[in-house]
Design goal:
The complex is a heterodimer of chains A (157) and B (330).
Chain A lengths: L1 H5 L24 E6 L3 H5 L5 E2 L13 E5 L2 E6 L4 E2 L9 E7 L4 E4 L7 E5 L12 E5 L3 E4 L5 E6 L3
Parallel strand pairs in A: 1-4
Antiparallel strand pairs in A: 1-6, 2-3, 3-4, 5-6, 6-11, 7-10, 8-9
Chain B lengths: L3 E9 L5 E4 L6 E6 H5 L6 E8 L7 E6 L9 E4 L4 E5 L9 E7 L6 E4 L10 E5 L11 E10 L2 E4 L11 E5 L6 E2 L3 E6 L6 E4 L9 E6 L13 E8 L7 E4 L23 E7 L1 H6 L10 E2 L3 E5 L13 E8 L7
Antiparallel strand pairs in B: 1-23, 2-22, 3-4, 3-23, 4-5, 5-6, 7-22, 8-9, 8-13, 9-12, 10-11, 10-13, 11-12, 14-21, 15-16, 15-20, 16-19, 17-18, 17-20, 18-19
Classes of the chains: A mainly beta (157), B mainly beta (330).
């Protein structure tokens, strides 16, 4: 956290104020930590980890959110980043990207965002035998300030 | 798309295998070796090759040419040394080989392995579980430019280590998808313009900017976090793979790759972050070289060599690849 704070990275999410509810804890304003769903068990075991159901107002949690530690709120995805067999003991290494506000952006292309294209069989030929479906998109994702992106690397326990 | 030829091309063989990127996931492919076909052949030699979806990896249908009166067997099917589909986005690591018997303490460390390693010059290998060489664990190395036999391979850009004993290795048959790529640092000189050695062939070009990540265990803490511009590159396979950066490290603490007892630690790395346009212009470099590009591709790997699809050295090869309306492999 000191690295992100020291680089003047803004947190993305506001704090969740504490409330008089049993088993809850206030949540600090936070950076995002983006990781794989496989990490959830290990996250649960971290000292001080706050499950999202322990937030004073869990409805403020994001759908993909798993919980918070300090100034990090963890978002998990089944397509999170894994570096296969990259530890000294041959284990998979999970990448946890900790990002501040506007650390990266995706530049929209005018009139060329993602398109899902379905063509009914009538376009195929006189006998209208075959439909087609596909997608196309063009995007330009970019890290805007690399000092606002950190990669925590971890194996599973 | 019905039976459409979706792509065609030509290349001159070096005798090595060739990866041909082909869009739309090819269903059939034919390859013509015009050099061999134009020559008079005493011994039958492959001049045309065919593959279609359903053939196992490495298979080929060959048409051979011979001017001999009694030539026979001019068509042949084989399951090796032919066509293999590839998809670099899969990022599949090679199988684990628990065959390292020693890693030498030579100036350029040499790994000894039992059995036959099957490594080619310039392959990338990941070392793990090295007893007495844990500092190498999980790091990828380009190998074989200095020493390569079936039982040994050099870690070409790794500085001298204390000799270690057993360990594991596996081939890494892919590059990270996006270029320019993050690389592990194995050495940094103390000089008016620091020279940085990287463990894998870096592919950087002059003008690119990198963020230096140098954890405390490497000694040269002054370098950590510095944004540097690349002012020169050295890609000499045996001795090079360095970049020179516009950072005066002459008064910095000496860089020292950690010993085995320090492991685990965070590797020192170069992280490409962009480009200094004025520096690039001054150096005559492409000012768009900081673009981050997905280099993933699908296509066909053609085996190199005589009577193989990618041909022998200097053979001119033509190819066509196509898509079928349907594939019914029952």
């Amino acid at each position: 956290m000191r690295a992100l704070l020291g680089a003047n990275a803004y947190t993305i999410l506001d704090n969740i104020e504490g409330e008089d509810k049993f088993g809850t804890a206030p949540v600090r304003d936070a950076y995002f930590a983006l990781t794989h769903t496989d990490m959830t068990k290990d996250l649960d075991a971290v000292d001080g980890f706050i499950q999202k159901n322990q937030y004073p107002s869990p409805m403020n949690a994001l759908r993909s959110e798993w919980g918070a530690i300090g100034n990090l709120r963890f978002l998990v995805s089944s397509i999170g980043s894994i570096t296969k067999n990259a530890s000294n003991l041959n284990s998979d290494v999970y990448n946890i990207f900790c990002v501040g506000m506007e650390a990266y952006a995706c530049i929209e292309q005018d009139g060329y965002s993602a398109q899902f294209i379905y063509r009914p069989p009538v376009y195929d030929g006189p006998l209208a035998l075959n439909a087609s479906v596909g997608y196309k998109f063009s995007e330009a994702p970019r890290i805007l300030n690399d000092l606002w992106v950190l990669n925590l690397r971890s194996t599973l326990s | 798309m019905d039976n459409t030829i979706i792509q065609q091309g030509r290349f001159t063989s070096t005798g090595a295998s060739v990866r041909v990127p082909i869009r739309s996931d090819v269903d059939w492919m034919a390859v013509y070796n015009v050099t061999q076909a134009a020559a008079s052949q005493t011994t039958a030699i492959g001049v045309k090759y065919y593959w279609q979806r359903g053939f196992p990896a490495g298979a080929k249908w060959s048409t051979l040419k011979s001017n001999s009166a009694n030539a026979a067997n001019l068509e042949a099917y084989a399951t090796t040394l032919g066509f293999t589909l590839f998809d670099t986005s899969l990022q599949t690591v090679g199988s684990l080989n628990a065959t390292i018997t020693a890693i030498s303490g030579a100036a350029i460390p040499v790994v000894s392995n039992s059995g036959t390693n099957g490594i080619a010059v310039g392959d990338v290998v990941r070392i793990t579980n090295a007893v007495g060489g844990a500092q190498l664990g999980g790091i990828d190395f380009t190998v074989g430019y200095n020493t390569l036999t079936s039982g040994t391979f050099s870690l070409d850009y790794m500085p001298q280590i204390v000799a270690s004993t057993t360990g594991d290795w596996r081939k890494i048959n892919f590059q990270p998808l996006f270029y320019p790529r993050r690389r592990v640092i194995t050495n940094i000189t103390t000089a008016s313009q620091a020279v940085v050695t990287l463990s894998v062939v870096h592919q950087y070009i002059v003008g690119q900017s990198i963020r230096m990540v140098v954890p405390d265990v490497f000694g040269m803490t002054e370098m950590d976090g510095i944004l540097a511009n690349i002012v020169a590159v050295d890609e000499t396979p045996t001795t090079g793979n360095t970049i020179t950066i516009d950072v005066d490290s002459s008064a910095f603490t000496t860089f020292a790759f950690p010993l085995t007892a320090i492991s685990p630690f965070t590797p020192a790395e170069t992280v490409p972050v962009g480009e200094d346009t004025s520096s690039a212009l001054a150096l005559g470099a492409d000012i768009l070289a900081d673009a981050t590009v997905n280099r993933g591709s699908i296509g066909m790997m053609l085996q190199g060599g005589s009577s193989c699809p990618a041909g022998a050295d200097n053979d001119v090869i033509y190819w066509v690849a196509g898509k079928s309306f349907g594939v019914d492999n029952l």
